[in-house]
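Holo model, zinc ion. Inputs:
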Amino acid sequence: MKKEDFSRLKKILIQKRSFLLRADSDMANDIKEETMNRHGDDVDVAESDYGQAMTFLMKNRCQDELSYIDEAIVRIDNGEYGMCAECGDKIIKKRLEVMPYSILCIECQEGSEKSRV
Ligand SMILES: [Zn+2]
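Output:
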């Protein structure tokens, strides 16, 4: 990859990061409001429980993604970006274009997903 590619991907990562940070604090507010408005009949409570669980799930996912992005940005800064964190192989550019925060090559990513199951 060229130097321009790195700075372009870094820009994308920083943009995505600020978007996620905003979404994250919005969700935190939603959860707070839901908890504060907790009165009403059982159906309301059940529905807001469900909504809150979904928000929690999305918030978790958002935070996972943020930590990947942070790691990718650090790797760009210290010149390790584009190499697999596990085996050290080059990560193909096409993969980075689609998922700029990938720190594993496809093989290692698939391997780690399999071992998690
Ligand atoms: Zn690898």
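The helical segments are 3-36, 42-77, 93-98, 106-116. DSSP finds four helices and no strands in the chain.
Archived with the compound record.
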